[in-house]
């Protein structure tokens, strides 16, 4: 098992955890359930830990795959740039979650502010993580993104055949 293998295993965890935790957080807010909100907030922090691990493993992965046949350096760069944005957004979400956990423990009256921030950061982080994952898929899975490579026909080709 090398860094590329670890990267591929770990990278999917924050992509799933952040939207899952966001749904939990919304349920906890709607039902006024402190335990559900606590689980969601801790899950956001856990997602940031996995996002950081995936990002740092990505450096070693780049060294492994950049010289493979069929791998475009532009795809790697695009993935790396989008992953950087996703990582910082997920870290911001985790820091906000930690602040919210602190405010809940000490009963600081900022719950409304945290609800707005966490929902916004949760949505934006989910989108950024999904986009980074999509860009990563383009590195070694052209069949998922290129109609010609997958044997499918584009709209123009279909109309010419008809």
End-to-end C-alpha gap? 49 Å
Assign the CATH topology.
Four Helix Bundle (Hemerythrin (Met), subunit A)
Radius of gyration: 19 Å
- Structural category is mainly alpha
Give, in order, the helices and strands: HHHHHH
What is the count of structural domains?
1
How is the main sheet built?
Answer: none
Shape: elongated
- Please report the total strand number as a whole number: 0
Query: β content, as a range?
Result: under 5%
Helix fraction, binned, reads over 70%
Low-confidence stretches: 154-162
Mean pLDDT figure: 89
Mind explaining what this structure looks like?
- With 162 residues, this protein is an all-alpha fold.
- The protein has a single domain, classed as Four Helix Bundle (Hemerythrin (Met), subunit A) (Up-down Bundle), CATH 1.20.120.
- It has six helices and no strands.
- It has helices at residues 3-10, 12-30, 34-65, 73-105, 111-140, 155-161.
- The radius of gyration is 19 Å and the shape is elongated.
- The chain starts with a helix and ends with a helix.
């Amino acid at each position: 098992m090398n860094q590329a293998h670890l990267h591929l295993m770990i990278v999917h965890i924050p992509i799933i955890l952040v939207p899952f935790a966001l749904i939990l957080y919304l349920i906890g807010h709607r039902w006024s359930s402190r335990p559900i909100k606590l689980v969601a907030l801790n899950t956001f922090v856990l997602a940031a830990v996995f996002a950081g691990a995936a990002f740092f493993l990505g450096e070693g992965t780049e060294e492994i795959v950049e010289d493979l046949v069929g791998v475009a350096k532009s795809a790697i760069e695009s993935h790396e740039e989008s992953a950087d944005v996703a990582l910082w957004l997920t870290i911001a979400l985790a820091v906000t979650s930690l602040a919210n956990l602190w405010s809940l423990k000490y009963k600081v009256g900022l719950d409304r502010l945290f609800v707005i921030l966490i929902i916004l950061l949760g949505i934006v982080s989910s989108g950024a993580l999904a986009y980074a994952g999509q860009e990563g898929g383009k590195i070694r899975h052209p069949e998922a993104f290129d109609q010609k490579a997958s044997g499918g026909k584009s709209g123009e080709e279909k109309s010419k055949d008809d």
